[in-house]
Amino acid sequence: MTYQGLLHKYGHLLDLPPHTQTVSLLEGNTPLIQADSLSRQLGGGFELFIKYEGLNPTGSFKDRGMTAAVSEAHGRGATTVICASTGNTAASAAAYAARAGLKSIVLIPQGKVAAGKLAGALAYGAQVIQIDGSFDDALTMVVQITNKHPICLVNSLNPYRIEGQKTSAFEICDRLGSAPDWLCLPVGNAGNITAYWAGFKQYNEVKSTGLPQVLGVQAAGSAPLVLGHPVEKPETVATAIRIGKPARGEQALQAAEESHGRIIAATDEQILHMQKTLATLEGIWVEPASAAGLAGLAIEIGNGTLNPKGKRIVAICTGHGMKDPDIITKDMQKPLIVPPKLEALEEVILG
Description:
Elements: H1 6-10, E1 32-34, H2 36-41, E2 47-52, H3 62-75, E3 80-84, H4 88-100, E4 103-109, H5 115-123, E5 127-131, H6 135-148, E6 152-153, H7 159-165, H8 167-176, E7 182-186, H9 191-207, E8 213-219, H10 224-227, H11 249-258, E9 262-266, H12 268-282, H13 292-303, E10 312-317, H14 326-329, H15 342-350
Parallel strand pairs: 2-10, 3-4, 3-6, 4-5, 7-8, 7-10, 8-9
Antiparallel strand pairs: 1-2
Helix pairs in contact: 3-4, 3-7, 4-5, 7-9, 8-9, 9-11, 12-13
């Protein structure tokens, strides 16, 4: 049977209104890749899987929620969608709006969005507006304008975003036959951790798949849920989770508590080290924020606060490495230049 997108496959499980008119780029159906080499490096004795969300159409998990949000907006006759973004939401909203023939407007914090993400929003035809402020300032502004004008908000405050994002939990259970013992994932605006927990709970009610413990991971310079208060000027190389006041922070904390899990912080150094380790050991290149969940897992195992032995663990990698290539290229050594002669190549390779 030909795959036709998330709403076709899982729409009967999603709380979407009858007027919803499907707008799809064949999102979802992303691979769950077994990571044996990384498991061994972290001590071994457990199964580790990477849910590689960077293989969605616009390169991030945001497409799952956006197909639902834009399908609902399109079905009720909306003509314009708007979002605040650190990059991935912008590209996804712009792509799905283009697919539906809608106008898209994106507010981004000035100088705080990776070039690969900004390029995506522009390529898909969005009106991109930079603000002299943070993501949280941008989110406040888009909420205000959608309360005043007939423009559809497609940030994760939109409940249909969460409905769409639940589908990754469904896919994991379908692939493994049950929920994993632990789920590790990055936490920024906290919509994704909220959606995963809702998805696992729903699937458990329908199919008795069990529930995972959830390990949410924030960047240390942007960790309001760990600190217990908003961060006025969040800073981290993991731009996708550079958010100081998560819109769904309370729900994220609830997900961690209900699952008997927790939310912790990883430093930029730990996140970048895991990004490189995942690429060189497993051939999976993700943007920095995507490595946060795995960095947190390594911290917990190293501290002895998580015993992985005999467990099945799934880590969510939310975005492709091409979203933020500058992180890799800015510090790399320039490639060697050799003359076009076999002897010169042999000298470099063989010594």
